[in-house]
Amino acid sequence: MVHFLSSDYFDVARETLDSHPGFTEATRGVTLGVQFAVTDGPDGDVSYGLVVRSGAVDIALGQIEHPNVSITNDYATAIGISRGELNTQMAFINGRLRIEGDIAALMRNQTLIQQFSSAMSEVEVTY
Questions:
Q1: N or C: the chain end with fewer CB closer than 10 Å?
Q2: pLDDT digit of tens for each residue in the chain (127 aa)?
Q3: How would DSSP label each residue in 29-58?
Q4: Is 109 in contact with 32 (CB distance < 8 Å)?
Q5: What would you report as the CA-atom Rg of the chain, rounded to the nearest whole angstrom?
């Protein structure tokens, strides 16, 4: 088990995404950078980025250069999404999740986002 949003979490996430057939298939031909900001966590705010470039993926703590979109939510919302208890679309509609930038890029890559969620649901996490 890894602690949610820790450096170990992102190490396991990277390995999980690299080995998940649905996610790796969904990354083919895709270039996408997503910057995440999670606020109000027990250890403060956390920023991390997901970068996909034609089959190669990186997810890590910190800022990425020139993200297509930036997504911000609080820690409770991030946990709900991570556990599969909260749908990202509903979180957005209810104002619990904010998206800035090229929203169309996210819409074009819905399969990738769905496969990302599927892969990450396999990671055993403590909160």
A1: N
A2: 999 999 999 999 999 999 999 999 999 999 999 999 999 999 999 999 999 998 899 999 999 999 999 999 999 999 999 999 999 999 999 999 999 999 999 999 999 999 999 999 999 999 9
A3: T-EEEEEEEEEEETTEEEEEEEEEETTEEE
A4: yes
A5: 13
> CA-to-CA distance for 90 and 34, rounded, in angstroms?
19
* CATH for the stretch 2-120: 3.30.1050.10
Smallest CA-to-CA distance from 48 within 20, 79, 15, 9 is with 9
Structure tokens at 22: 């649905």
* Identity at 81, one-letter amino acid code: I
DSSP-assigned letters across all residues of the chain: -EETTSHHHHHHHHHHHHH-HHHHHHTTT-EEEEEEEEEEETTEEEEEEEEEETTEEEEEES--SS-SEEEEEEHHHHHHHHHTSS-HHHHHHTTSEEEEE-HHHHHHTHHHHHHHHHHHTTS-EE-
